[in-house]
Amino acid sequence: MKLDVLIRKLLPHDDKFYGMFEDASRNMVKAAEALKDLSFAKSLEEREAVVGRIRDLEHEGDAVTHKIFSELNSTFVTPLDREDIHLLASAIDDIVDHIDGSATRFTLYKIKECPQRMIHLIDVLYLSIAELSKAISLIRDLHQFEELQKLFKKVNEYENQADSIFEEAIADLFENEKDPINLIKLKEVYVGLETATDKCEDAANVLEGLLIKHA
User: Fold this and answer.
1) Residue 50 and residue 103 in contact, taking contact as beta carbons nearer than 8 Å
2) Is the C-alpha dihedral spanning 195, 201, 203, 206 positive or negative?
3) How many domains does the chain have?
4) Nearest-CA neighbor of 103 among 174, 32, 28, 203?
5) Rounded CA gap, 102 and 205, in Å?
């Protein structure tokens, strides 16, 4: 065990960061669930209501992130490296930001229905977030090495799936979408969703780094 990790274990520290990460994680899952609801919304009113829910969740996520950063600046001994706390909080915040951005574009651009590949991409994003949330719930005990490694592997697999869906969707748009304005609108939404899956992998990489440090 590295000396700095040993010292951190021996010194008294504040565990409230774990609770705040769990709050951020639950908020992230709620945003992903709302995004799934949006993909099946039938009317403009229904879509706008779901987008409003996602916007509220994005604000709640921002509040948790700011709280983490504030506590980080005022806490002498932290249970994890300060840089890792900052990176993980930022990655979770980025995921929710991209969910919110994608949902907002969906209504701003007046997209009437969600293409099948977009529904598939949203499903993969949700599954990736679900696995990431499980991993975040385990950071209180980083000795669960095998379980965490399985979760990281799943997040990586979902990111690869998302890349494939994204590439196929964009290729299909250029091949079959006759309206150039609609092509641009749909491409913007696809980019936001695919970027959200990238951010899931970023968060998983931070957690994997923590696992290596504390092994």
Assistant:
1) yes
2) negative
3) 1
4) 32
5) 23
- Identify the residue whose tokens are 């499903």: 123
pLDDT of residue 56 exceeding 50:
yes
Distances (CA, A) of 139 to 60, 102, 185, 210: 22, 29, 39, 8
Q: Does the reported pTM lie above 0.85?
A: yes
What is the domain range of residue 72?
3-214
14: left (phi over 0), alpha (psi -120 to 50) or beta: beta
CA distance 188 to 202: 21
Q: What contacts 189, CB < 8 A, 6 or more positions away?
A: 102, 105, 106, 109, 111, 118
Domain CATH code at residue 16: 1.20.58.220
Average pLDDT over residues 8-37: 83
